[in-house]
Design brief:
By secondary structure, the chain is of the alpha/beta class. 37% of the residues lie in helices and 13% in strands. The chain contains 15 helices and 13 strands. An 8-stranded parallel barrel has the order 1-2-3-4-9-10-11-13, surrounded by 8 helices. Strands 5-6 form a two-stranded antiparallel ribbon. A two-stranded antiparallel sheet has the order 7-8. A hairpin with a 4-residue loop joins strand 5 and strand 6. Helix 13 packs across helix 14.
């Protein structure tokens, strides 16, 4: 593990055409990005040239349900490649950058997830990460023989059991279990194989995993929960946390809270890395940056903007309200999921006295994450302030349109951050854990005090 000084961590969040809702219409974006492998290869190589810690891919297991007039004008989460398959391809054309994909605990089995991410870690020689989500989307449930997702708290309780099982399966083999000795005929040491035998409330998983222990021990665990249950889950398991803070004050509150929770659980808070989303529009001058932003906004259809805001507010129908007046007191959302996101946007509208139309246009940029518009120095100032003042350990960069704005960030902002000594000039390690300054976890069966092979029943419970 590297012992280099603390630096800003960087993720490159590849929403296919970009994170602005009208990105697919921009002349510097790839309209068919969702299924264009060469497009992703270009993005991955650009991010690696910028010395990013990781690539991040979100996932959806359903076509979004939305107003059809809005849906038919949007390219986001409609039709795109499955992320683990895509990252396996990108592993072959990159050398250092981490590869993080989302996978749901509700629509997968622990054994499948353990096997797939361990495989990606081997394929990439130690660069894999799993973004753990519980999935609140009822449209997804309908693709998996259910009408709706399970209740919020129960999803998180089940996700805890799911994650503990995955961690247990990743310890199925000692690091030195495989001898592969052709002369003696010994492929592996029998005592180096461990069977989980988990029997819990939701899952019964015997194991062992049929993939050797991976280069990182465990792929890096990533999470993005902002609710109370989500924060608790992140504090217990996450090594990287993606957040949607819109202001420095909200970022500081989240940062302090989740680090305190992690410390209370006996974890080192410095090894729980908080990375807010940031969607930058970079220009050589302020005027150029604003012109880029204005052009993007000119591509937004009003019904698309309203639909994005509606989703961020929990699915409340905004069609009956005057778009040029502030948000009224809203009815309760259809379900309790996304309450923290809803509160963030309601508070932003109140604090800045924004009309529904203005708030909706704000939401189109970065899909509800923080935006920064300005010169390379101003973008760097923004990042440095959040990093220095307890709001972030790094940022999950969400280019508004791709590849154009990713190129702008790498070519213009990265050199400023490097000059200030805030990001690396070159990779010092080879694995994602090394990039992030995270230790390789020991195998529970071989570390001092670990459970004996015969005592493994329920070890992940």
């Amino acid at each position: 593990m590297t012992t280099a000084k603390r630096m800003i961590k960087l993720g490159a969040f590849f929403n296919p055409t970009g994170h602005h809702v009208a990105s697919w219409r921009h002349p510097q974006s790839q309209a068919d990005a969702g299924v264009n492998f060469k497009h992703y290869v270009e993005l991955a190589k650009t991010a690696e040239r910028g010395r990013f810690d990781m690539i991040f891919l979100a996932d959806n297991v359903a076509v979004r349900e939305a107003n059809m007039a809005a849906l038919s004008r949007s390219a986001q989460y409609i039709a795109n490649l499955e992320p683990l398959t895509l990252l396996s391809g990108l592993a072959a054309v990159t050398e250092k950058i981490g590869l993080v994909a989302t996978a749901s605990t509700q629509f997968n089995e622990p054994f499948n997830i353990a096997r797939k991410f361990a495989s990606l870690d081997h394929i990439s020689e130690g660069r894999a990460g799993w973004n753990i989500v519980t999935t609140a989307n009822h449209a997804s449930a309908k693709n998996f023989s259910a009408e709706q997702v399970i209740a919020h708290r129960e999803r998180y309780e089940r996700a805890k059991e799911f994650t503990r099982i995955v961690l247990g399966l990743w310890d199925s083999w000692d690091d030195d279990a495989f001898l592969r000795n052709k002369e003696t005929g010994e492929l592996f040491r029998p005592e180096g194989l461990h069977t989980l035998n988990h029997k819990g409330r939701w899952y019964s998983v015997r194991g062992p995993l049929n993939v050797p222990r991976s280069p990182q021990g465990y792929p890096v665990l990533v999470q993005a929960g902002s609710s109370d249950d989500g924060r608790g889950f992140a504090a217990e398991f996450a090594e990287v946390i993606f957040t949607g803070a819109l202001t420095l004050a909200s970022a500081q509150e989240y940062y302090s809270d989740v680090k305190s929770r992690a410390a209370a659980l006996g974890r080192d808070p410095s090894k729980v890395l908080v990375m807010p989303g940031l969607s930058p529009v970079v220009g050589r001058t302020e005027k150029e940056a604003q012109e880029k932003q204005d052009y993007l906004q000119s591509l937004v259809h009003p019904i698309v903007a309203r639909e994005i805001l509606s989703s961020l507010l929990g699915g409340v129908d905004l069609s009956a309200y005057d778009p040029d007046k502030p948000l009224p007191e809203l009815p309760p959302p259809p379900n309790s999921d996304g309450q923290s996101t809803r509160d963030n946007w309601v508070n932003l509208g109140r604090e800045q006295n924004l009309s529904i139309r203005q708030l909706a246009l704000r939401a189109t940029h970065g899909r509800g994450k923080s935006a920064a518009i300005g010169t390379p120095e101003q973008i760097a100032d923004h990042m440095e302030k959040w990093w220095c003042e307890g709001g972030a350990d790094g940022f999950n960069i969400q280019p508004p349109y791709q590849p154009g704005s990713l190129n702008d960030f790498v070519d213009m902002v990265i050199p400023v951050l490097q000059e200030r000594g805030l990001v690396r000039r070159d990779y010092e390690g080879n694995t994602l854990r090394e990039h992030l300054g995270l230790a390789r976890p020991p195998n529970r069966y071989t570390q001092a005090g670990g459970p004996r092979v015969e005592d493994t029943a329920g070890v992940a419970a």
